[in-house]
Write a structure and sequence with these properties.
Length: 290
């Protein structure tokens, strides 16, 4: 069976450790329908999904928000945290009082984190800094800036350095000011792909849920992979993976809708956001959790 597919469905995978608990045991070649996996930075996957170069992906929450009319959510999948996330970090060379009216160098790899920082600076601290895009190298970013935003594995590695900078975890700041979860990424599928090839999308979705379930039951394969590829200590990685949350229930949805509300209030996005689940799940035809 190929569900009428002219080509394999393409699913995008963010190349960061924070999605490993969902993707580690996901093997497209083992699915019932043809599928291919594309690994890229979040900003690239955001664009590829929007332009139809891929059919489904883990994408930045902000990217989902500005194109939510084109996508369905694959339910109960996210990258969320209640408090510290440990991989969305603002490194301060100058005191915070100067940073909020100074210059901040931004990673260009994730729209969600960049706009979360802008919300924090404006709504929480009353600041209006100048932002400039930069390649994710902490020392180069801070040569001409008061602070630097790093995300993902770049942030993790920089947090291990002995540099003397104050570090703000944006997940922690968000929770301190709002009391809410913060959701950094979602799994989305283009509506035309899901409507035209529901069985192929079902195969992908079930594969992701099963992979997430296996990853949650046993963190040690993820810890071992992180030690090999990135470094650090087993204790660090066990704490890191345990602190992340990959479901997307009412509490995570409430936190994300507040984020979208603030983004709209600040003019960072223009549209209202609808968290529309893939109807095959919403109608009860497929169990949304495992």
């Amino acid at each position: 069976m190929n569900d009428g597919l002219a080509r394999p469905l393409r699913i995008g995978r963010i190349d960061y450790t924070n999605v490993w608990p969902v993707f580690h045991h996901f093997h497209p070649n083992e699915l019932r329908h043809p599928a291919e996996q594309v690994s890229e930075m979040p900003a690239v996957l955001n664009r590829k999904l929007r332009e139809g170069e891929i059919d489904a992906a883990a994408i930045s929450s902000f990217a989902y928000g500005i194109s939510s009319d084109k996508y369905y959510l694959l339910p109960n999948l996210s990258v969320s945290a209640l408090n510290r996330v440990q991989s969305i970090l603002l490194f301060l060379k100058s005191p915070l009082e100067k940073v909020i009216h100074g210059k901040i160098a931004l990673t260009t790899t994730s729209a969600t984190s960049v706009n979360l920082l802008k919300i924090i600076m404006k709504k929480f601290y009353g600041g209006d800094p100048v932002y400039e895009d930069a390649e994710p190298s902490l020392e180069r970013m801070l040569q001409n800036a008061d602070a630097a935003l790093l995300i993902g594995d770049h942030a993790i590695r920089a947090s291990w350095q002995t540099h003397g900078y104050r570090v703000l975890d944006l997940g922690e700041v968000w929770n301190l000011w709002t009391g809410h979860w913060m959701t950094f990424a979602l799994w989305a599928v283009r509506r035309e792909a899901a409507d035209k090839h529901p069985e192929a999308v079902r195969s992908i979705y079930e594969g992701l849920l099963e992979s997430k379930s296996r990853g949650k039951r046993d963190l040690e394969p993820l810890v071992s992979k992180a030690l090999r590829q990135i470094g650090g200590t087993p204790a660090y990685w066990r704490g890191y993976f345990s602190n992340l949350h990959h479901d997307f229930g009412p509490e995570q949805q409430a936190g994300l809708m507040l984020y979208f509300r603030y983004a709209k209030e600040l003019g960072l996005m223009q549209n209202e956001v609808d968290l529309t689940e893939w109807p095959a799940v919403a109608s009860g035809n497929l169990s949304p959790c495992r």
